[in-house]
Amino acid sequence: MSTTSDTTSGTTSSGSGGAGGDETPYRYTARLAQDIEVAWQDRWEERGTFRAPNPAGPWAQPDEVAALGEKLVVLDMFPYPSGAGLHVGHPLGYIATDVYARFHRMLGRNVMHCLGFDAFGLPAEQYAVQTGQHPRKTTEENMVVMRRQLRRLGLGFDDRRSYATIDPDYYRWTQWIFRQIFEAWYDPEVERADGGRGAARPIAELVAALEAGTRRVPELAGRSWSQLDAVERAEVVDAHRLAYTSEAPVNWCPGLGTVLSNEEVTNEGRSERGNYPVFRRNLRQWMMRITAYADRLADDLDRVDWPEKVKTMQRNWIGRSQGAHVRFPVTTVSGERAGDGAEVEVFTTRPDTLFGATFMVLAPEHPLVDALVPAAWPDGTREAWKGGAAGVDTSSPQAAVASYRLAASRKSEVERQKEDKAKTGVFTGAWATNPVNGVRVPVFVADYVLMGYGTGAIMAVPAQDERDWDFATAYELPIVRTVQPSEGHPEDRAYVGDGPAVNSANDEISLDGLGVAEAKERIVAWLEEKGSGEGTVTYRLRDWLFSRQRYWGEPFPVVYDEDGVVHAVPESMLPVELPDVPDYAPKTFEADDAQSSPEPPLSRVPEWVEVELDLGDGRGVRRYRRETNTMPNWAGSCWYYLRYLDPANDAAFCDPQNEAYWVGPQDEPVAGAPAGTRDPGGVDLYVGGVEHAVLHLLYARFWHKVLFDLGFVSSEEPFRRYFSQGYIQAYAYRDGRGQPVEAKEVVEHGAGDDVTFTWQDEPVTRELGKIGKSLKNSVSPDEMYDAYGADTFRVYEMSMGPLELSKPWETRAVVGSQRFLQRLWRNVVDERTGEVVVTGEPADRATTVLLHKTIAGVREDYEQLRFNTALAKLIELNNAVTKLASPPRDVVEAMVLMLAPVAPHVSEELWSRLGHDGGVAHAAFPVADPALLVDDQVTCVIQVKGKVRDRVEVPADITEDALRELVLAREKVVAATPDGVRTVIVRAPKLVNVVPA
């Protein structure tokens, strides 16, 4: 095999053995593409082509920053380093952000584009449990594979800014941020710079106010700060911290020995991994007081440029509702009549329907349940109320409620909330009093009410709520309509619409005839006057459960003293590193042992758990116990975008000057923001899948706002602009059992409507699904690199359709993108000789006009992330050039520059062969001549008596008189007006209407 070295670019062009054969040794093939791509990737790395200068910190290059144009931060969502590596669906967003970043770099901007790894996670830990191999080793090996695949794709990342959340130098700062949150509280009275009230403040300010007696808190219960001992003071302060420990309802899986997130629990209430039963248990957990920020998290969505559907998802998750808290007196076990003893508080958005509340329902986890249940069923208890239909022990209320609660603990929240689920419940044996009419109503426990929403109790108004209607029907409970249904509404269904109030009056107040809004206002005022309730705002959002009984996560930077008081370790002791453990699996229990408690892997390292430390608080060396839970993997992904700005900084997570430069507030707010809004700052473009559009974005926003309140960042939001990319889907195949089979092994038979498919000679069905291991339809980008080259792969993915939509992958269609690049290559390079074939002669006017229209269109498309339409324009221009006798240099060079963001390797090679030094990465993007964007010729439609009779091409600037004269001379107009013309209506240059005499 012979090779020829190209002296211009230094790239080796293969001969007949690797390119186009003996006759076309310089043809653009997959082999030649690979040679070109690897060579340019090496060159970019050697030159540091994509390294963005910082204004301050360890990488301070203020002169370079000043010499560049505006800054731009373009980021992708943090990837997890999977052992399977990338499939062709993963790079979609990475290529898109790379195109956008490269385009703006060519516009002269200082562009930061980088990627790290969200490397703590359950898959590596599960593998460690199975094999005994340390999850760090597994994770780092996976990162090696992904880095290779990403580099081969030609992504223009700043390589200096890449890191993983598992690096101690990184999670040192994750722990540092946790310390700031732990050492902070939310002061609802402090006035913010934007005029609003409420912000995080250092906990030391609260302690100082308590010591001085200038602030009283409910926890003091009438005592002064000086009257409390050290443990009591700690309890008071901890009740206000933004990070705190609490008994919280969690998904406890004894069979796995760990707490599971809701996403890890199936609809049947079993673990996704292992299919073990899962129970709802109250366990001590770390929590984040994200609810303190509920209003700001909802309101500030108006200040960012995000898809409206994503904003709606966040608002729904926060779930802000205007309504009322209403208190129902209840009879306890020791009570003699309704009204004695305790009260059950409910939140309702429809206090106007209170007269229709005919029973109450408590969540199985409600803390008042035990106090309400008597030893024996009250006289006259209906059999239906005892819960026999739910399969529970009905011998006594205590037995029935206990067995029902156990059954409920085995169900996931998703299953409990299913709309079509049969409603089940048990009468507690207690009664409540409806405060508006004094009617005694039974109190049930039922699993369709969740402790995590509202107060964990509801007033059931069956006439106005479908779930309550179904329950009332099943349990023979009264139904009283309090809103007049619309005409024709079925009598046997709840009415959930608006209408005038009915059956809603007592001796002191009447809502009858009022509309919903007025009825709400009047009943809330009455409840407040009577002390039975008050108008309020509530939220679906609950404090964030922030601990896991696992090994592979960030250790908490806290210790507990002999009294159980928690202390943050000093910053000088960070990072608190993970120790090696003898066993990565948490202790497991019998699958049905609901009363067992977690024993995390870290608890098995006593020399790490039990330590003697001097915390620098003046108490000297004392004995402490470390936290054996670890942080969830959300922790590292809450703030990683900030570390990109200054990853070499040992003194701070980010230099304030770098933060202000890269993500600080901008001069103008985003389009559509409310008038007078201050720009929140944040990442200029953040791209990722919609599956992370709620929790990841919400958690990152919370951490960022705390950092803003405490003065560590100048920006108020992490992501100024977010773009939700679609998925790439691929065909998947299922056998007769409905199980997926390997898509690559499926054989296709026939064509068109008669096509069938077999796997191992057995028929299979075909469906379109998300690419991944579960459907066995993965396609590796490595296969695309080998078969076509990275640039062809990039062009294909960007041309598949709008970035925000999901679209099907079709390997056979990739060849179309390769042919486009081959045609472009031939317009520059002779496939037989390797010589440059462009001519110095200027292009004709038609080609020049098309070029400048393409430049204008591609610029706009790149800016708006419409990469598929940009490529369509480039293909059209290239096809036009292909038809010319000789490709004009001025058109070809502009075309190469415009293609460079999408296909950077072949563009670099062609730019070099065209005689240019310096590469295309920082070359100036072409600029359209406005004069050439105006059409010289337009089509004029000619009508006679309103009907189209003719068309004619005319100059765009033709006058009305000239156009009238031209039209009247047209043969078809003359033929259609034998008796002459009465009038001519001219709308130059596009329309003329002739009215015959």
Helices, strands, pairings?
Layout: E1 3-5, E2 12-14, H1 30-47, H2 62-67, E3 71-76, H3 91-106, E4 110-114, H4 122-131, H5 135-152, H6 168-182, E5 184-191, E6 197-202, H7 203-212, H8 230-238, E7 243-253, E8 258-260, E9 279-288, H9 294-299, H10 308-318, E10 321-329, E11 343-348, E12 359-362, H11 369-372, H12 397-409, H13 413-416, E13 426-433, E14 440-445, E15 457-460, H14 466-474, H15 516-530, E16 533-538, E17 544-545, E18 558-560, E19 566-568, H16 606-609, E20 610-614, E21 621-626, H17 634-637, H18 640-644, H19 656-663, E22 685-689, H20 695-709, E23 722-725, E24 728-734, E25 740-741, E26 747-749, E27 756-759, E28 762-770, H21 781-787, H22 790-799, E29 807-808, H23 814-826, H24 845-863, H25 867-882, H26 889-899, H27 904-913, E30 937-944, E31 947-955, H28 960-968, H29 971-976, E32 981-987, E33 991-996
Parallel strand pairs: 3-4, 3-22, 12-14, 22-23, 24-29, 30-33
Antiparallel strand pairs: 1-2, 5-6, 7-8, 7-9, 9-17, 10-11, 10-16, 12-15, 13-14, 18-19, 18-21, 20-21, 24-25, 24-28, 26-27, 27-28, 30-31, 32-33
Helix pairs in contact: 1-27, 4-5, 21-22, 22-23, 23-25, 24-25, 24-26, 25-26, 26-27
